[in-house]
Write a structure and sequence with these properties.
Chain B: Residues 31-59 form the 4Fe-4S ferredoxin-type domain. Chain B: This is Electron transfer flavoprotein subunit alpha. The structure holds two protein chains of two kinds. Chain A is an alpha/beta fold. Chain A has one domain: HUPs (Rossmann fold, 3-Layer(aba) Sandwich). Chain A is 27% helix and 31% strand. Chain A has helices at residues 38-54, 69-78, 96-109, 130-138, 192-197, 247-260, and strands at 3-8, 11-13, 18-20, 27-29, 34-36, 56-63, 82-86, 115-118, 142-153, 156-162, 166-173, 176-180, 203-206, 227-232, 241-244. In chain A, a hairpin with a 3-residue loop joins strand 10 and strand 11. In chain A, helix 3 (96-109) packs across helix 4. Chain A is globular and about 65 Å long. The termini of chain A are far apart. By secondary structure, chain B is an alpha/beta fold. In chain B, the strands form six sheets. Chain B has a seven-stranded parallel beta sheet with strand order 11-15-10-5-8-9-16, sandwiched between helices. In chain B, strands 19-18-20-21-22 form a five-stranded parallel beta sheet. In chain B, helix 5 packs across helix 6 and helix 7 (292-301) runs parallel beside helix 11 (380-396). Chain B is flat and about 70 Å long. In chain B, 54% of the residues are buried. The chains are: A alpha/beta, B alpha/beta. At the A-B interface, strand 3, strand 4, helix 3, helix 4 and strand 9 of A face strand 1, helix 2, helix 5, helix 6 and strand 11 of B. Strand 11 (166-173) of chain A pairs antiparallel with strand 17 (259-266) of chain B.
């Protein structure tokens, strides 16, 4: 059996060094370079492994500014077959709900699929919520924290879901969405040969006007029930002591403090 | 319904203006400044740019929802096979505090099989009503059946806010429920408060950086928030049980599933860093893998466990479950000693509720010293061996 797989990927800032200037309240971001969300590499690798075993096609889908084409090129260099970028000013300012909705609409434009794979979470939002919300909009079952693919049968996939104290082994009917754990497979590096071979491959760009649901209230800021009221630098602790001394003195003081607090 | 409009004629210095945006969402196109898809609607350009250069335009008046129709703070009872996860009690404590401010009741929603007696137990922690969805179909967690029960609860009870533990179950269930009701969900809140108009004030680290964001859900109900284990305080158990348990009718709940649970196997019992009273944390200041020995030795001497920061996971020195931080675990030990950890916000978010924070770092300006109770400016390679020797001497004595 061959499988049609869609992998959701996102471009994230290459560095997490973002700070708020406490005086002006302005965000300072060091370095503007960006990269593919590292957790998405595991989803893409899972897709590639499934394709190698069962055959089929891999489409990657992303939402972001035109620059996000870069990560679709990267996915091509790893072995993805087709790429879709959802890009439109109307998508700007989207929270989890609006992002998930836009992606689910984009998936409808991507054609028939058996499986959607997502990474565990992104490194910039860290919410891990977009996958399950997308699945809800697509009315398909979803399983998060997938740590192993057990088998693929006709019309279903059996996976291991990592719970707090147990592993749940579940058979999920296609089409479905899985969010995979880091380390499910070791992601391959992009191949230079593939990169060269795919450099002219088309990336399908989909804007608001291409989507089926033309209700602007469901996209971008308008479709976002949550609103950021303010951003501020994190607070520091109230009481704190800074010890600056010789190593001997510091070790002594620390020993006494730990002993005094009854940890020894 | 708002959007951002740029009035180019009011921009005095174009280059300075586009630099205000930390997300590179302002760009010059055809000689005019435009907003691109990277915009996060942080409104910094409105606040920091020249007067009137960036403007938020409301397209049409927003139809307001009737907030008074939604009453009560609900907590999802997180459990595996009926064993309630302690984050549940922490959330009940928080829910009670929020509910008292606006004079609302506290509810629990408990979905499982054979759980009624376990629901009774929750009445000792300050819950007014525990709504129980009890059926063999809920024996194991399956997203579709659980979401259906949750949907039934929200439709019938209409709570204004729902708190869900950010566990492996909560982190997939809450988004499905939020999307079903097309409402807001804020992940990993570190602070929760509530306004008189029942708007939940949700604070979390945001934009993947050293920033906290205050997030509201001003025009949608219910408001969903997930909170990690060990962020809030669990209430004391009252000897007396108050409130009641309501067993819910299942006639509107979908019990058929597209997911078949074949087996549930226990995971090998392992030490979780979340449960340690004492943690010694290795950061990038530890130069080689062999040097981890002294970190382990100190942890052993203090009867604790070892944890680490993200870079050491990437180096392959530790398993992922040893990582503290936003992309790792949240810990709240009685004592945490960080060794060569600079203290990014993502890391701090995973440990800054620890009771006693000791930080050892060579760099006096390291952000870890902003959260450490005892900041030790020094070289861990000089301090740790001495400390270890002293503890050994003490124990030998």
């Amino acid at each position: 059996m061959s499988m049609n797989i869609i992998v959701c990927i996102k471009q994230v800032p290459g560095s997490n060094k973002v700070e708020v200037d406490p005086v002006t309240g302005v965000l300072k971001r060091d370095g503007v370079e960006s990269k593919m969300n590292p957790y998405d590499l595991y989803a893409l690798e899972t897709a590639l492994k499934l394709k190698e075993t069962y055959g089929g096609t891999i489409k990657v889908i992303s939402m972001g500014p035109p620059q996000a084409m870069q990560i679709i090129r990267e996915a091509y260099a790893m072995g993805a077959d087709e790429g879709i970028l959802l890009s439109d000013r109307k998508f700007a300012g989207a929270d989890v709900l609006a992002t998930s909705y836009t992606l689910s609409q984009g998936v409808r434009e991507a054609g028939e699929f058996d499986l959607i794979l997502c990474g565990k979470q992104t490194t910039d939002g860290d919410t891990a919520q977009v996958g399950p919300e997308m699945a809800e909009y697509l009315k398909i079952p979803s399983v998060s924290n997938v740590k192993r693919i057990v088998s693929v049968e006709d019309g279903a996939i059996t996976v291991e879901m990592d719970m707090a104290n147990t592993i749940e082994i579940a058979r999920v009917k296609f089409p479905c969405l899985l969010s995979v754990e880091k380390d499910i497979f070791m992601p391959r590096l992009p191949s230079y040969v593939k990169m060269r071979a795919t450099k002219d491959r088309e990336i399908k760009v989909i804007g608001f006007s291409n989507l089926k649901d033309q209700d602007e209230k469901k996209y971008g800021l308008n479709g976002s029930p949550t609103q950021v009221q303010r951003i501020f630098p994190p607070e520091s602790n109230i009481k704190r002591e800074l010890w600056n001394d010789s190593a001997e003195e510091l070790a002594d003081k620390l020993f006494n403090k730990i002993k005094e607090s009854k940890f020894i | 319904m708002a959007r951002l409009v740029i009035h180019n004629e009011k921009i005095t210095d174009r280059d300075a203006f586009i630099k205000i945006c930390p997300f590179n969402a302002l760009e010059i196109k055809n000689g005019a400044v435009e907003v691109n898809g990277s915009c996060k609607m942080c409104k910094l350009c409105v606040r920091k740019g020249p007067e009137g250069a960036a403007e938020i335009v409301e397209d049409q008046p927003v139809k307001s929802i009737d907030k008074s129709a939604w009453k009560g703070i609900a907590v999802y009872v997180d459990h595996e096979d009926g064993i309630v996860h302690p984050v549940t009690l922490e959330l009940i404590g928080k829910a009670r505090e929020l509910a008292n401010k606006i004079n609302h009741p506290v509810y629990c929603i408990f979905i499982g099989a054979g759980i009624v007696d376990k629901a009774e137990e929750l009445l000792h922690y300050g819950v007014d009503n525990v709504y129980v969805y009890d059926h063999e179909a809920f024996k194991h967690f399956r997203i579709d059946t659980y979401t259906s029960a949750f949907e039934d609860f929200v439709k019938n009870i209409m709570p204004t806010a729902i708190l869900v533990g950010a566990t492996n179950v909560g982190r997939q269930l809450a988004p499905r429920v939020a999307a079903r009701f097309r409402t807001g969900l804020t992940a990993d809140c570190t602070v929760l408060d509530i306004k008189e108009n029942t708007d939940l004030v949700q604070i979390r680290p945001a934009f993947g950086g050293n920033i906290m964001a205050e997030i509201h859900t001003p025009n949608a109900r219910p408001q969903l928030a997930t909170v990690r284990y060990k962020v809030m305080n669990a209430p004391e158990r009252n000897a007396e049980a108050k409130g009641k348990v309501t067993v819910c009718d299942l006639s509107n709940v979908v019990l058929n599933s597209d997911i078949e649970v074949i087996d549930v196997v226990p995971k090998a019992k392992e030490k979780f860093i979340e449960n340690a009273d004492v943690l010694v944390v290795a950061g990038r200041g530890v130069k080689t893998q062999e040097d981890l020995n002294m970190i382990h030795e100190l942890a052993d001497l203090l009867g604790g466990d070892v944890a680490c920061t993200r870079p050491l996971i990437e180096l392959g020195w530790f398993e992922a479950k040893k990582q503290i931080g936003l992309s790792g675990r949240t810990v709240r030990p009685k004592l945490i000693i960080t060794c060569g950890v600079s203290g990014s916000v993502q890391f701090a978010a995973g440990m800054n509720n620890s009771e006693m924070i000791v930080a050892i770092n060579k760099d006096e300006k390291a952000p870890i010293f902003k959260i450490a109770h005892y900041g030790i400016v020094g070289d861990l390679y000089e301090i740790l061996p001495r400390l270890i020797a002293k503890i050994k001497a003490e124990k030998g004595a």
